[in-house]
Amino acid sequence: MRVFCSLAFELTSGIVKTRQTTGLKALQENHKSVAGVLHHKLGNKNYDLRRFFPQAPLEDLIEQFWFVDWQLSGDKPHTQKNLPDPNFHLVIEAHQVKLIGPVSKLYTYTMKGEGRILGVKFNIGALSHLLDKPLSQYVDKELSASEIFGDQVESRLLPLLDAESDRDIFNTLSAFLLNYTAGYCVSQHQALALCTLIKNDTSIFSVEALSLKSNLSKRTIQRVFNKHIGLKPKWLIRKYRLHQVLKQLEIGSIDILGVVELLGYTDQAHLIRDFKEIIGVTPGQYLK
């Protein structure tokens, strides 16, 4: 497997420390608005979320690292609702390291007392070379990270739950994952470009429009999604267009009929159906 830079490892007090022999750059924190968490502004008082971009050798593999700590008083837990996500995530939490496949429906995570969860969000298509099944078989599935990253993954990464700094966590995860990088093929670049286009171009409401904007045939788009994403392009388009309106609904700048018109739905019933399928609740329930 390819390794892009030289790293030295030390095991100190049960925490894997890393030292990059060429010198480490400052961590680059991701300050973009959080889009995958429902009611983030209301919920983030219960936890501390930090996100970091990968360094250059890992940019093809990783979209971002995310670290969450919480310290809740009393016995009242906090349940955080999260939006569907087409990316794979490596997740480190109490007693386990797991790989979560693309998620097609709303999912929740409950925090109690004091705790920590660490994650790596992989780029679209970045794990294709490591997976031996069609991507559709990983949708809404969790598996032990050892199935993909080897038996040493827990002994190497679980100690990070006790690490004293984000830098230690970032460096150790980076060093570990450098061993799993591989060059992108053409179709992987296409998959990432298509997802980025869907996410950023709010005028795309159909696979036909995506085909025109990307200059790829509908058949090619379907093939790329099957190979590197495991979800249908129509589903991803609906997901990101619904993301568009969540913030507007929360601040009251648009009503349900306005959403129907903005997103090009034929009627309110179709909007409610899609909203509930992807967000998990109806628009009315979301606003309560």
TrEMBL record:
InterPro entries: AraC_XylS_family_regulators, DUF6597, Homeodomain-like_sf, HTH_AraC. Signal peptide: none annotated. Residues 192-288 form the HTH araC/xylS-type domain. It holds the Pfam family DUF6597. Gene3D superfamilies: Homeodomain-like (1.10.10.60). Keywords: DNA-binding, Transcription, Transcription regulation. SMART domains: HTH_ARAC (SM00342). GO terms for molecular function: DNA-binding transcription factor activity; sequence-specific DNA binding. This is HTH araC/xylS-type domain-containing protein. It comes from Pseudoalteromonas luteoviolacea H33.
